[in-house]
Write a structure and sequence with these properties.
single chain; 595 residues; alpha+beta; four-stranded antiparallel β-sheet
Length: 595
């Protein structure tokens, strides 16, 4: 008798979702699964309990399911779980999230019940509970069932989470299918599914250098078995270049924990890339790519990988030898050459003794096409923000250095080192309290760190002050537009009356995220006498497009204009209080659709 024949359905004469998923996939002419998965059969509306708090949901799920999951009879337990889930009437995602966190008294019994639910369950909520249990309890024999259930609408995320420790490639393919809205990765996933390694390689190196394609970098590498491809083709220049792009994207901490930390073959793939990097043609693009890799290995999240002693330093030394010692002076408008020239020294600088200082500041401009600049703080060579926070990049140097926030004084000062990519109000921020204590600078009073509370750090005050002064003087990370923005910001700090006379305040001054050569002055207008029945604030963006004038001249001209002209007359209205905007005649322009 087969395994399928031995399964007892939870509801007579009803097809299990597992069998339904296999049937739907089997009748597809081309075998392609829709991005959102196959629709669930006769699925009733999902319950909604908007008043339910996280704590209440956890308590209800714990009380309802924990005793049932200890039952040694999986058929009886699964039937009881099915009934209790219907009584809970809880949103499926909430139910799965709390099930995955349950404290289990008998893991073997819970595993048997989870398998009964996933193989014979007829309801998406009950099947989802079984899958959530298999995130912790799954074994290789569960892979086929999880892959099948992942083809159904609403179950892909849970299936991929359960597959991650069992079959990374299968998990990655599920994630790509469900999240690749642009469908730029479809040729790659089809090649991978075909099992043709050459087709997979061709589709991989053909991926566009586009954020919409590369934001799933880790999953792309896992699905395509990048490490295996490199072993088979160690001198493939196109594959090596693609490898560098994927590694650099994985090391980025733009919006969450850097994915490089969850990419299991990361160290081996870094080794393969650097070992054969001399196969890359010595183009400006490849030089910049290798320098970006070096910056990641020097002060980015990649430092936190479990390196063997001396290996990371050896990779940096190899890259240092490979890259030209100096780039020619860039021609005006050549962003890539200018970026390379300004950043060439950063990952390879050492102290005279050859050792890293205990406390070190590195300001990194991510790439020539980006406005992203972060202040990386290293303690004993370990990058602080990825190690303690992992929800976004370190704050920019304008915030930490130009303001003097990192300077130590006898009076303690709390400083925000990083903010979550979404906002502090959503996912928090990382804070530390800095104070001077005799001949030491103390960092303690940590707030917002992920994991155990960090210890207090004591630094030699003289060394701390010297490195901070060096970082404050070093503007090599700056390009002309960013320098202009910093000079305008400094001018407004010295002369706040320039904006106050127009009832404006500067909220943020920097460079445009998509166009690094454009300066943006973000202003807030809060009228002292708003029209009756209105209030609040309005926002304006004053954009200064690129020109060839020196930054000091551009900043001076901008400040002089503020002496005579009200920015509300020429800056773009950016939104704010609707009633106030309507009363004053401001209308926000329609949003430009993305290309």
């Amino acid at each position: 008798m087969s395994v399928r024949d031995e399964r007892e359905p939870l509801a007579p004469r009803t097809t299990s979702l597992y069998d339904y998923a296999l049937f739907r996939h089997g009748i597809e002419p081309d075998g392609r699964v829709p991005r959102k998965g196959y629709p669930l059969p006769d699925a009733p509306p999902e319950p909604s309990r908007a008043d339910l708090t996280w704590q209440q949901a956890q308590a209800e799920v714990t009380d309802a399911l924990t005793p049932l999951l200890a039952d040694p009879d999986p058929v009886r337990a699964a039937g009881a779980v099915h009934r209790r889930i219907a009584e809970l009437a809880m949103p499926h995602r909430t139910l799965r999230a709390h099930t995955a966190r349950l404290a289990l008294t008998d893991e073997d019994a819970a595993r048997r019940t989870a398998r009964q639910l996933t193989r014979s369950g007829t309801d998406a909520a009950a099947v989802g509970v079984g899958m959530a249990l298999l995130i912790r309890l799954g074994e290789p024999e569960d892979v086929a069932c999880l892959k099948a259930l992942g083809m159904l609408h609403g179950l892909a995320d849970t299936a991929s989470a359960a597959l991650d420790p069992l079959d990374r490639q299968a998990a990655a393919l599920l994630v790509i299918r469900s999240r690749d809205r642009s469908e730029q990765l479809t040729p790659l996933t089809e090649a991978i599914t075909s099992g043709d390694a050459e087709a997979t390689r061709s589709a991989l190196v053909s991926l566009p250098d586009d954020p919409r394609a590369m934001w799933l970098a880790r999953r792309i590498a896992e699905a395509a078995d990048l490490r295996g491809l490199l072993r088979a083709r160690p001198q493939d220049a196109e594959l090596l270049a693609l490898t560098g792009r994927l590694l650099h994207r994985m090391a980025d901490q733009l919006d969450s924990r850097a994915e490089i930390l969850d990419y299991l073959p990361a160290r081996a793939v870094y080794e393969a890339l650097v070992r054969h990097a001399d196969e890359l043609p010595p183009t400006p693009e490849h030089r910049s790519l290798l320098l970006s890799i070096a910056l990641d290995l020097h002060s980015g999240a990649s430092v936190l990988l479990n390196w063997r002693p001396g290996r990371r330093r050896a990779l940096l030394d190899a890259l240092d030898r490979l890259l030209p010692a100096a780039a020619p002076e860039p021609v005006p408008g050549d962003r890539r050459a200018d970026w390379f020239r300004r950043n060439r020294h950063l990952p390879f600088t050492r102290t005279e003794a050859g050792d890293r200082p205990r406390w070190e500041l590195v300001v990194v401009h991510e790439s020539e096409d980006s406005s992203a600049v972060e202040t990386r703080i290293l303690i004993d060579g370990i990058p602080l923000v990825p190690a303690l926070f992992g929800k976004g990049r370190g704050n920019p140097p304008e915030y930490l250095l130009d303001s003097g926030r990192l300077r130590a004084a006898p009076e303690p000062r709390e400083v925000q080192l990083a903010e979550a990519y979404c906002t502090e109000g959503c996912c928090g921020a990382l804070y530390v309290t800095i104070r001077r204590d005799g001949d030491a600078v103390v960092w303690d009073g940590w707030r917002g760190a992920v994991g155990p509370p960090p210890p207090a750090y004591r630094f030699d005050a003289a060394a701390y002050d010297a490195d901070l002064a060096r970082a404050e003087r070093d503007h090599s990370w700056c390009w002309p537009a960013r320098s202009t923005a910093r000079l305008i910001a400094a001018g407004l700090r010295e002369r706040p009356e320039l904006t106050a006379r127009w009832e404006l305040s500067s909220r943020w001054i920097g460079t445009d995220w998509r166009d690094p050569d454009t300066v943006v002055v973000h202003l807030r207008y809060e009228p002292s006498a708003p029209p009756p029945g209105t209030g609040g604030s309005l926002y304006f963006d004053w954009r200064l497009p690129h020109d060839d004038d020196p930054p000091r001249d551009r900043a001076g001209a901008a400040l002089r204009r503020l002496e005579t002209d009200d920015p509300k007359a020429f800056a773009a209205f950016g939104g704010g209080n609707d009633e106030l905007a309507e009363a004053l005649g401001y209308r926000k322009p329609p949003r430009t659709p993305r290309a």
